[in-house]
Design goal:
There is one protein chain. Helices cover about 80% and strands about 0% of the residues. By secondary structure, the chain is mostly helical. It has one domain. α5 packs antiparallel against α12, α8 runs antiparallel to α9 and α12 runs antiparallel to α13. The protein starts with a helix and ends with a helix.
Length: about 325
C-alpha cells in the first residue's frame, strides 16, 4: 500500500495502530527537525547579511556576495537540510499539520541567538517560547487537519496563487522604496507569503516526484517551486539585512502558515475541523502563538543582539575603508 492509502486511513499494521497516525507522527518529527534547522540557518544567515552593502538588496547580487561568507554557507547547509526535512514531513502529512510546526523555528532561533551572544533569557523570552509552542500545539489538536487530494485542478492553483503573488509583489515594491524598519516589515510580509506558497507547492511536488520522477520534470510545478524558492530566499535575506528580527519575523511567522493552511484547504482540499467550539479554540490558540511571536521578536535582549552585530560589522567596514 502506498502513502496515499495510509494518509486516507486505509491501513492498520499488525499491532492495531492506524498507519495514518504513524505517518502523521513521522511528519511531526520531520517538521520539528526542519524547524530546528531553519532556526540555526536564520541565526547564522542574519549575522552574515548585516555585513553586505544595502545596494545589493533584493537582487541575486546579494546571494553571490553572501556565497563568499563561510558563516552564511554554514547557514545555507542547515537551510537545505530544513527544506529536505520539510519536504519529507509534507510527503507524510497535510500542509495544515506541518507548517504550523515549522513556524516554531522562532522558538528555537531566539534561544540559539541568546546562547551565541552569551546572554540570558528572561521572563519575556521564556513566556514567548511557551506561547508559540503551546499555541501551535493547541491549534493542531483542535484543528486535527486531514489529508486532501493529490493532484488539484490547474484553475484552482491559478485562483489561489495569483492573488497571493499580487500581494507579495506589492509588498516587495513598497519595501523597495523604503528604508529601515518599514522596509524590513514589507519584505518580511513578502517573504512570509512566498514561503507559504512554497510549502504548498512542495507538498504537491513530493507527490509528483514519488509517482513518476521523469514525468514530474515535465510539469510546471517543478519549475515554479524552484522559482518561488529562489525568490523567497532573496526576499528573506533582504529582510534580514534591512533591520532586526522584530520587524520582519512576526510577518513571516504569521503569514507563512496562514497562507499555507488556506491554500491547502482551498486547493488541496485538506480538511480542518470547523465546528463553532473548535473554531473558537483554534482562534484563541492562534492569538496565543502570535502573541508569543511578538514577545520574542520585540524582546530587548533580541534587539540588542542584532544591534551589537550591526555595530561590529559597521566598525569592520569602516576600518576596511580607512585602510583601503
Amino acid at each position: 500500500m502506498g502513502r496515499e492509502g495510509w494518509q486516507s486511513g486505509g491501513g492498520t499494521p499488525r499491532g492495531g495502530f492506524p498507519l495514518t497516525k504513524i505517518m502523521y507522527g513521522a511528519a511531526i518529527l520531520a517538521a520539528l527537525g526542519a524547524a530546528v534547522c531553519f532556526a540555526v540557518a536564520a541565526v547564522l544567515q542574519q549575522e552574515s547579511t548585516q555585513s553586505v552593502s544595502e545596494d545589493k538588496s533584493l537582487s541575486i547580487g546579494l546571494l553571490t556576495a553572501l556565497l563568499h561568507r563561510p558563516k552564511w554557507l554554514a547557514g545555507g547547509a542547515f537551510l537545505l537540510s530544513g527544506f529536505g526535512l520539510q519536504a519529507l514531513a509534507l510527503s507524510y502529512g497535510p500542509v495544515a499539520l506541518v507548517q504550523p510546526i515549522v513556524v516554531t523555528e522562532l522558538a528555537f532561533a531566539i534561544p540559539i541567538g541568546i546562547v551565541r551572544k552569551h546572554r540570558r533569557a528572561g521572563q519575556r523570552e521564556w513566556a514567548g517560547i511557551v506561547c508559540v509552542t503551546g499555541g501551535i500545539a493547541i491549534f493542531l489538536l483542535a484543528a486535527s487537519p486531514g489529508s486532501g487530494i493529490q493532484e488539484p485542478k490547474g484553475v484552482d492553483w491559478l485562483l489561489s496563487l495569483l492573488p497571493v503573488g499580487a500581494v507579495a509583489a506589492g509588498a516587495i515594491l513598497a519595501g523597495g522604496r523604503r528604508q529601515g524598519p518599514k522596509r524590513a516589515m514589507y519584505l518580511g510580509a513578502a517573504a512570509g507569503l512566498s514561503f507559504g506558497v512554497l510549502a504548498v507547492l512542495t507538498k504537491a511536488l513530493t507527490h509528483l516526484l514519488s509517482s513518476d520522477l521523469l514525468k514530474a520534470f515535465t510539469t510546471w510545478q517543478v519549475y515554479l517551486t524552484i522559482a518561488v524558492g529562489i525568490t523567497a530566499l532573496v526576499i528573506s535575506q533582504s529582510a534580514y539585512q534591512a533591520g532586526p528580527l522584530a520587524y520582519s519575523m512576526p510577518f513571516v511567522g504569521v503569514l507563512e502558515p496562514l497562507v499555507a493552511v488556506v491554500i491547502g484547504d482551498t486547493v488541496l482540499g485538506e480538511s480542518v475541523r470547523q465546528s463553532p467550539g473548535q473554531f473558537a479554540i483554534e482562534l484563541v490558540a492562534a492569538v496565543v502563538a502570535c502573541t508569543g511571536i511578538v514577545l520574542l521578536t520585540t524582546s530587548d535582549t533580541v534587539l540588542s543582539i542584532y544591534e551589537e552585530g550591526h555595530r561590529a560589522d559597521g566598525e569592520r567596514l569602516h576600518t576596511a575603508g580607512n585602510t583601503g
